[in-house]
Write a structure and sequence with these properties.
The complex is a heterodimer. Chain A is of the alpha/beta class. Chain A has helices at about 15-30, 35-50, 80-95, 105-120, 130-135, 135-145, 160-170, 190-215, 230-235, 295-300, 315-325, 335-345, 360-365; strands at about 55, 65-70, 100-105, 120-130, 150, 175-180, 220-225, 245-250, 260-265, 265-270, 305-310, 350-355. In chain B, helix 4 crosses helix 5 and helix 8 packs across helix 10 (about 215-235). The longest helix of chain B is centred in the last third of the chain and has 20 residues, at about 215-235. Classes of the chains: A alpha/beta, B alpha/beta.
């Protein structure tokens, strides 16, 4: 029943199980259908802007060969669109025309609102009231794209509660609605589905670094909130001798300081107390401000295939400024955590997933 | 006679409230062990869980509450909670300690019938459940089946769910176990209409709101449900 070693599974009310079965069957059928892959490839190349470049950042990291995988250049400004497009094609195959989603930093909400506009779907995005305040530009973008943004006013008023509310909406409207989850979390088959849709980041990075350097990198580094950009880029290097480094926000280190618990439908490593009650996460970055993490990351940690470290708010902000001044790139605060750790990593050839751009964070940095 | 189950959240005053509910005619008390992220619950139960957690009601305190409630009356007591609490406490240990504290069974709102089959508990089925899943839940359930009347979370609705009749019909064709309908039942009229279809009803959110008014208010509310159910028997 568990999907990744001791992690994963389906810890959801019975009402959702048939929908998850339907989703899994639809997903398997799509994967086996060349038409699905062709349509997604067409959208990724002609609409989203793939492949994204791999940029050498030699002023940012002198003495290293540090490459940035430029998901910040993807349409809507973050890697989230890879997943949203794939799930939109899947939702249409399943006959669902209403989409619900959760969002933290707003990047997944914007990506979802974007694909809903493109596909003509009704779109409802749940967002914590606290996140709406600190990520105002993304709220306005979602409105312009025709999405309804529903503020979540209780609990932590951040991504954790927004996710719970999106799942409750899905339970209530399950016959007509597809839940477009934004990260590799949630009940099976979501973690696997999102990882597969984000694996395009890793496939391109592998080809690009081989073309540029003639060898595989020593390390691949990515930030981890729920962990979708990390799992996407890790996936292409998992069978190689390449260090995989996930960087969590120090105040939201589900893998670093968490314990096995059940949150949002899966067993994973969660910031929780001795009684299994989920704790609040704290990060300057709304996209990392989540007390859970994808179950596959918990498994990669336990099996020592990937290592997970933390970066503080201050370290991320400092890396943000350094990238801006040395490379002319404003990264989102989320991948700024990865940049902070990549800089000091004992590795010569490094690929960092620059998962999104920083325009949304300007208010945080002022 | 139709069975009436009342849901209350564990808290300092819960034993006294539960006794009032039994006095008012409840046949079974479900005791909520609060969880920080209760996916199956609507606003009323969720807010009650938040309050209980703020009051310090963690697993051990809830087991104490269960034991103190058990000391007051004999009707069945069934803890209702979420997987994360069992995961942290230990699945088997939770079952053992809950039984020792006086629990007659257990409900885990986010644990479908095909997971942790060793854990004896009341299983839930929903209007979306396939016949195959209903059969599995009926086979594994502990005494009765919890029929979730709506696709949705707990909490009052204006009308009794039109999905209940069809669900009861499908479940009856597959099993003989008693069926209790819950989610969205708040008024005596809805309780009576649900009881005409099922063997009993579960009332949660509306009971919590009544309990906010104290034991007497809860007693009066439960008694109104009891009379409505007893009127069904006469039909």
């Amino acid at each position: 029943m568990l999907t990744y070693g001791e992690y994963g599974g389906r810890y959801v009310p019975e009402t959702l199980i048939p929908a998850l079965d339907e989703l899994e069957a639809g997903w398997r059928a799509a994967l086996a259908d060349d038409g699905f892959h062709a349509e997604l490839h067409h959208l990724l190349t002609t609409y989203a802007g793939r492949p994204t470049p791999l940029t050498l950042a030699d002023r940012f990291a002198p003495g290293k060969r540090l490459y940035l995988k430029r998901e910040d250049l993807l349409h809507t400004g973050a890697h989230k669109l890879n997943n949203a497009l794939g799930q939109a094609v899947l939702a249409r195959r399943l006959g669902k025309r209403r989409i619900v989603a959760e969002t933290g930093a707003g990047q997944h909400g914007v990506a979802t609102a974007t694909v809903c506009a493109r596909f003509g779907f009704d779109c409802v995005v749940y967002m914590g009231a606290e996140d709406m305040r600190r990520q105002r530009p993304n709220v306005e973008r979602m409105h312009l794209l025709g999405a309804e943004v529903r503020p979540v006013e209780f609990g932590t008023k951040t991504l954790k509660e927004a996710t719970s509310e999106a799942i409750r909406d899905w339970i209530t409207n399950v016959e007509t609605t597809h839940y477009l989850i934004g990260s590799c979390v949630g009940p099976h088959p979501y973690p696997e589905l999102v990882a597969e849709l984000q694996s395009v980041i890793g496939r391109e990075s592998r080809e690009q670094v081989l073309a540029a350097e003639g060898r595989l990198p020593d390390a691949v580094v990515a930030c981890v909130g729920g962990g979708s950009n990390a799992i996407g880029i890790f996936s292409a290097f998992i069978d190689d001798e390449v260090r995989l480094v996930g960087v969590e926000a120090a105040g939201a280190a589900s893998l670093g300081t968490g314990r096995a618990a059940v949150l949002h439908g899966a067993r994973s490593s969660v910031l929780a107390d001795d009684d299994g009650q989920v704790l609040d996460a704290h990060s300057i970055s709304a996209g990392l401000d989540y007390p859970g993490v994808g179950p596959e990351h918990a498994h990669l940690r336990d099996t020592c295939r990937a290592e997970y470290v933390g970066a503080t708010d201050e370290e991320a902000v400092s890396a943000f400024h350094r990238l801006a001044r040395t490379e002319g790139i404003l990264p989102a605060l989320e991948p700024a955590h990865a940049l902070a750790r990549a800089l000091e990593l004992e590795a010569e050839l490094v690929v960092v997933c620059l998962s999104g751009r920083g325009d949304k964070d300007l208010a945080q940095l002022a | 006679m139709k069975r009436l189950a009342i849901y209350l959240m564990c808290g300092r005053k819960t034993p006294e409230l539960a006794a009032a509910a039994v006095e008012g005619g409840a046949d079974l008390i479900e005791l909520g062990f609060p969880f920080s992220d209760p996916l199956a619950d609507g606003p009323v139960v969720r807010a009650a869980a938040e309050r209980a957690l703020a009051e310090g009601m963690r697993t051990r305190e809830c087991l104490d509450c269960l034991a103190r409630t058990r000391a007051l009356f004999d009707v069945p007591l069934v803890p209702m909670t979420y997987s994360s609490l069992l995961e942290a406490y230990g699945w088997k240990r939770f079952e053992t300690d809950a039984r020792a504290a006086g629990a007659n069974s257990l409900i885990v709102a986010d644990l479908p019938a095909d997971a942790h089959e060793e854990l004896r508990r009341v299983q839930l089925v929903a209007p979306t459940s396939t016949d195959e899943r209903i059969r599995l839940a009926a086979e594994r359930t502990d005494g009765w089946l919890y029929l979730v009347t709506v696709a949705g979370t707990t909490g009052a609705r204006d009308e009794l769910s039109p999905a209940l009749a069809g669900l009861v019909e499908r479940v009856r064709a597959l099993t003989d176990v008693p069926l209790h309908a819950g989610f969205g039942i708040s008024t005596p009229e809805q309780a009576r209409a649900a009881a005409e279809l099922a063997d009993g009803v579960v009332v949660g959110s509306a009971a919590l709101l009544a309990a906010d008014g104290g034991p007497e208010a809860l007693h009066g509310y439960v008694a109104s449900l009891r009379s409505a159910l007893d009127a069904t028997v006469a039909v």
